[in-house]
Design a protein that fits this description.
CATH architecture of the largest domain: 3-Layer(aba) Sandwich
Distance between the termini: 85 Å
Order of helices and strands: HHHEHEHEHEHHHEEHHEHEHEHEHHH
Number of strands: 10
Number of domains: 2
Structural class: alpha/beta
Radius of gyration: 23 Å
Number of helices: 17
Helix content: 40-55%
Length: 396
Amino acid sequence: MIDSHFIKNTKLEGLNVSRETLNELEKYSSSLISRNKEINLISASTERSINTRHIKDSAQTIDFINKKDIKTCTDLGSGAGLPGIVLAILMKHKNPLFKVIFYEKSFHKSNFIKEMSKKFKLNTEVHQKNIFEEKNLNTDVGGVGKTTTVINLAAGLSMRGKKILVIDLDPQGNATTGLGLSNTENSDQTIYSVLNGNKKISQIVQTTKFDNLDLITSNVHLSGLEVETVGDSRRAFILKDELGSYLNDSGASYNYIFIDCPPSLSLLTIMALVASDALVVPLQTEFFALEGLTQLMKTIERIKNNLNPELSIRGILLTMYDKRNKLSGEVEREARNYFKDKVYQTVVPRNVRLSEAPSHGVPVLIYDKSCLGSKSYFNFTDEFLNQDKPVESAAW
């Protein structure tokens, strides 16, 4: 379906598209035509010009997202997955962290998008919803540095001789892959198997290739938990109960347990907040960040009042700091003025190595120890540890 002549006459040539990517685009093009006989994905009159009319037009939009600092694209009214699927295929190897979110009201079309996402192992999120009736579109999958902070703080502490357990509670499974393990859909050795009652934590804890660092993995199946547990009145406490049983029965001894939460407030996030003693909150030094933090504070207060009175904020970590950007400085000043000593002194800068490290399955502290991102997380590790040093009594 797609030949070298097509590449030379599109933006694909300048992107140095690999043969593997080209093959995936061709397979997607073929799937569109094949499934078009069953469901109305594209107009039958445009099947002959699918490369130039659909694939090429979609590929050209990559100019708007082909930047290192863009991690998310939302395709509204996705239809057959154009341009979203094409962009996801093009960006899969170029920027593994890049994610495409789809909104499509048609059951059959949204299923087709899910099928293509699974077939090509794309980083996507598909919502079968009418965008004109949806009040809270998910056009932001996080991006403040939650997973990056979990991975690198855990690695930094393990290097300091602390025994660490990381629980990946995000269906995207980024903490899992970021620590070198697999988040494939066919695995049942995940936190999902614990939360749905099929396994115990002792059966699914895995060691990583890093000393003193264990991991409970996640995969996309976790996204269905909220529906499956709708009849359980204590579902918010499942993780807390299972974790408590594991620590009491197994005698496992960890200095710290870190839970990597999903990017939005959901049942999984509530489970994490109920099971936790304290929170480290990454705060992106960009527009609207403080407003989002204010909403988080309200949520934390509700959790404290109703579900977990022991919950507290351990500290706020400023991330994605760009010293060339005046706004970063303004957000930092506002945060420190309002939250005082709750804001860590360490500031994590924007750093390309932080983005590259997860695709290699290692924390940046190991991937490149000398980069600015690593230095900041080493500093943050020490600052985090210093919070737990006992206050010495004054000598009389």
